[in-house]
Amino acid sequence: METLTFLQNTWFILVGMFLLGYSILDGFDLGIGTLLPFLAKKDEEKKVLMHAIGPFWDGNEVWLLTGSGALFASFPHAYATVFSGFYLALMLVLFALIFRAVSIEFYAHYENKNKRKVWEWCFILGSFLPSLLFGVALGNVIVGIPLDKHMEFTGNFFTLLRPFPLVVGLLGLNAILVQGTTYAALKTLGKVRERARNLTKKLWISFIVLFVLSGIMAYVYIPGAFSRVLAWLAALIVVAGWFLFKHFAEKGKDALAFYMSSLSFIGLWGIAGAVHFPNMVRASNDPSLSLTVRNASSTELTLKVMLIIALIGMPLVILYTYYIFKTFKGKVKINRK
Questions:
Q1: CATH 2.60.120.10 assigned to 2-327
Q2: pLDDT tens-digit readout, 249-279
Q3: Of these four, 46, 106, 183, 225, which has the most CB atoms within 10 Å of its CB?
Q4: Domain coordinates of the chain in residue numbers?
């Protein structure tokens, strides 16, 4: 039993790490995609932003696939409840990600401005929808959804559109947008970098407002949230990271600003994990029906075999990520004819 408990807790952390890795890495290209009309005004400026994320975006999404697969294998009951209950929202995310991937390729190959404009907006919307809906889904899982004794969601699509999940969704969207602006400032020059820096200053203010608002709503909607010591420590990481990020952004130290933005993202996930543990999906109608790491996990053997695979595979993924970022480091310059 002690071994099983250790494995369940370990996989709760690992699934969170996979989703954290996706948020930080794919966050910057989702942010750039969402803000493309504000960051770039000319075709060559849009091209340079596309080139800035080109070598990374598909590799970044590996973290989402790995996290989803890990959730399915380690906590299948939670996976089934979430993916069936959030079916419509997740289908929107899935189609958005598909069109986003296709739009990057078609945008690069079409010379016709009208057709290119269509794929440009597919890229923008395909970046915006996941950026918002991932946070809304996480907010629903944390605050709780109505479940029956068969671990099935008993609400509807509009049940998911409650105040707390929507605020969490906006907070997540804001954090992703900052990942995008800081990365754009890091990788570009001239007007694009200037616009990215200006947007960063505005997003810093909105993040503070949404962070405070989400804390107030957590106090109202999630009893006991403020009693978690680890959540307070994670909140300190968010605040420290965000103020350091502001400092470095104002000094024009784009790389450090991007790292501090990422540190704040780590803190946000730390708060979510600390407040939510040991729940996987909280039942809003009856806490006894909640899916936890204890009643929603796979068998001890499955968790053990998966852990061995993860210990072999994760270092390879991290090594690849490091290699690709090192290979394509530096500024992306606009080629003028």
A1: no
A2: 888 899 999 999 999 999 999 999 999 999 9
A3: 183
A4: 2-327
